[in-house]
Amino acid sequence: MIIGFDLMGSDQAPLSELQALEMLKDEPVCDLMVVGKGDYENTVKDLGFNFLLADEVVGMHEIPSVAVRQKRNSSQAVLVDKLKTNEVDAIVSAGNTGAMLGFSMINLGLIKDVPKAGLAITVPTESGYSVMIDAGANIHPKTIDYFNYGLMGSAFAEFVFAKNKPRVALLNIGEESAKGDETRQKAYQNLKSSDLNFIGNIEGNDIMKGFADVIICDGFTGNVVLKFSEGMIDIIWRMLKDTVDAVMRRKFGQFLVKPAVQDLKAKFNYEEYGGGILLGVNGIVIICHGHSSPHALKNAIRLAKTCAEHNLVEEIRSRVVS
Questions:
Q1: Residue 251, pLDDT above cutoff 80
Q2: Tens digits of per-residue pLDDT, 35-46?
Q3: Residue 321: its pLDDT value, please?
Q4: In whole angstroms, what is the distance from residue 275 CA to residue 294 CA?
């Protein structure tokens, strides 16, 4: 199995990417095709991985539609082309999200009978992880899109989270079926009458309680929820750390508090799965945050391998109702 990896994606590229490769050198996950611009071939090969030169890089602040038209030789475009020609089994990039969405949807195309792709992300909860879809690919979903998000998210939860009959919920402003706009009300009825394990609406304050394994929403709402929750967890962690540091200065304090804090941090760690997956396109595309750490990038490669091993695209294709 070969995973394509963007060396030029993150805010700290290529430093973070090279550090991730260094981690993987000692615990090999799979073969990698590393795509990057610049004189990094010897460095990457010394780490034991293949290197492919790209002529361009899409910057974080570039307009995605322009980049997709003008930067056909960028590291992201090259990766998508290699996935399309089956030279790699999946791809991972922490680069410009909009450009990655554009390259993927235009060059790979959508799975038959899936009108819109959705970006699925993992959300930490009290009891493990849930998948939330969409987190930014489609801000105006139709009723059929909500259904497909439930279907694709369920397949992802089954294989990645090992969930049997994943519980599917629709993110809304209330639990009642009549809540939300007309599209969400119709989506509720459509999901209720489907074969999915639909448990109804879920409100924002219940997202991290682990009531649902798959949470469906529009891309605008999902992206806001994602960034708010990440920022909230970071702030709470820093506040907690300051409090713990004060306690640890006292005699024996560190022995009482430090293990509990470390366990809490691990439980609500967004880096556990590394990135989101673009569901609905003809290929495994993992999209990471621009500020991803080497640890997150390493885990994103692991996620890509898991999805490819389970033939996630083919599994979704077999479930889609024509």
A1: no
A2: 999 889 999 999
A3: 73
A4: 12
For the question of whether the overall pTM of this predicted structure is more than 0.70, the answer is: yes
> Among the listed ranges 149-153, 247-251, 271-275, which one has the minimum average pLDDT value?
247-251
DSSP class of residue 74 equals B
Q: Which of 105-109, 125-129, 232-236 has the lowest mean pLDDT?
A: 232-236
CATH topology of domain 117-272: Isopropylmalate Dehydrogenase (3.40.718)
- Contact of 36 with 111, CB cutoff 8 Å: no
- Give the integer Cα–Cα distance in Å for 227 and 122: 13
* Share in percent of the chain as helix, strand, coil (round to 5): 50, 20, 35
Kindly list the domain boundaries of the chain, sorted by start residue. 1-114+280-322, 117-272
- The CB density around residue 233, as the number of other CB atoms within 10 Å, is 16
Question: Among candidates 125, 164, 109, which has minimal Cα distance to 285?
Answer: 109
Bond into 166 cis (ω within 30): no
Burial 72-106, CB ≥16 within 10 A → b, else e? eebbbbbbbbbbbeeebbbbbbbbbbbbbbbbbbe
Asked which of 91-95, 149-153, 215-219, 266-270 is least confident by mean pLDDT, the reply is: 266-270
| Helical packing angle, 97-107 and 75-84, nearest 10° | 30
Q: Which CATH class is domain 1-114+280-322?
A: alpha beta
Residue 89, token pair as written in the block: 């089994």
- Whether the per-residue pLDDT at 247 is higher than 70: the answer is no
Angle of helix 294-309 versus helix 143-160 axis, rounded to 10:
100
Q: How far is CA 144 from CA 151, 229, 276, in A?
A: 11, 27, 22
Same topology for domains 1-114+280-322 and 117-272, yes or no? yes
Helix intervals (H) in the chain: 15-26, 41-46, 64-70, 75-84, 97-107, 143-160, 182-192, 219-248, 253-267, 294-309, 312-319
Please list, in sequence order, all residues whose beta carbon lies within 8 angstroms of the beta carbon of residue 250, skipping any fewer than 6 positions away: none
